[in-house]
Amino acid sequence: MKKQNYLVNFLMIFLFGLFGWMAMSHSARADNGVWIDVDTTEHTLSVMQGDTVQAVFKNVAIGRYGTTWSKMTMDDKTPLGQFKIGWVNEKSRYYRFYGLNYPNLETAKRAYDENRIDEETWLSIWKAKIRGKSPPQNTPLGGYIGIHGIGRGDREVHDQYNWTNGCIALTNEQLDQLGRWIKPGIMVNIR
């Protein structure tokens, strides 16, 4: 049984690396080197092109309980790591929603190794990645994490508090400005 688990883990890690490399090489061509850097300590979101800063958005809000490498559903924490924009919802109650491919394979593998998710959940996330689909959004790790506006929310609350359930929030105006760079496939580094 241990030998079988070792082989399954080896195969998963190999395929994770292979697909990660393929996705990164494709993404670098498709997005002209543009990526997003979210600094959760400084509360900024920077648009980067390679190593050059293209724009900086200040006073972004994060999860009301901070950040974590080990996000779980309903913990109201923002997950740390590297993700990609997976989809866009133009009719979000938060003005516009740029959904992240959370939970990604790295997050899911860490959770599986820490016994926070079972093998079935790990495999469902892995299969979605292999098929080029968004990961399931209803796992114990949570879901529907993204970058969004405040919608009709209170600007003063946004300016003073971290108020999201784990997302990155900007004002609606900032989100409009960000829209010229952001699209599905763009890498988002949350640190």
What secondary-structure arrangement, pairings included, does this model have?
Elements: H1 2-30, E1 34-39, E2 44-49, E3 52-58, E4 67-68, E5 78-79, E6 81-89, E7 97-100, H2 105-113, H3 119-130, E8 146-148, H4 155-160, E9 168-169, H5 172-178, E10 187-190
Parallel strand pairs: 1-10, 4-5, 8-9
Antiparallel strand pairs: 1-2, 2-3, 6-7, 6-10, 7-8
Helix pairs in contact: 2-3
Number of helices: 5
Order of strands across the main sheet: 3-2-1-10-6-7-8-9
Low-pLDDT stretches: 23-30
Give the helix/strand class: alpha/beta
Provide the β-strand percentage band: 15-25%
Order of helices and strands: HEEEEEEEHHEHEHE
Radius of gyration: 17 Å
Main sheet makeup: 8 strands, mixed
Give the tally of β-strands. Answer: 10
* Shape designation: globular
User: pLDDT average, as an integer?
Assistant: 89
Distance between the termini: 38 Å
**Residue share in helix:** 25-40%
Task: Describe what you observe in this structure.
The chain is of the alpha/beta class and 191 residues long. It is built from 5 helices and 10 strands, in the order H-E-E-E-E-E-E-E-H-H-E-H-E-H-E. An 8-stranded mixed sheet has the order 3-2-1-10-6-7-8-9, with helices on one face. A two-stranded parallel sheet has the order 4-5. The longest helix has 29 residues, at 2-30. Mean pLDDT is 89; it is low at 23-30.
Key descriptive features of the protein:
191 residues; alpha/beta; eight-stranded mixed β-sheet; two-stranded parallel ribbon; 5 helices; globular
Short overview:
With about 190 residues, the protein is of the alpha/beta class. Helices cover about 35% and strands about 25% of the residues. A hairpin with a 7-residue loop joins strand 6 (about 80-90) and strand 7.
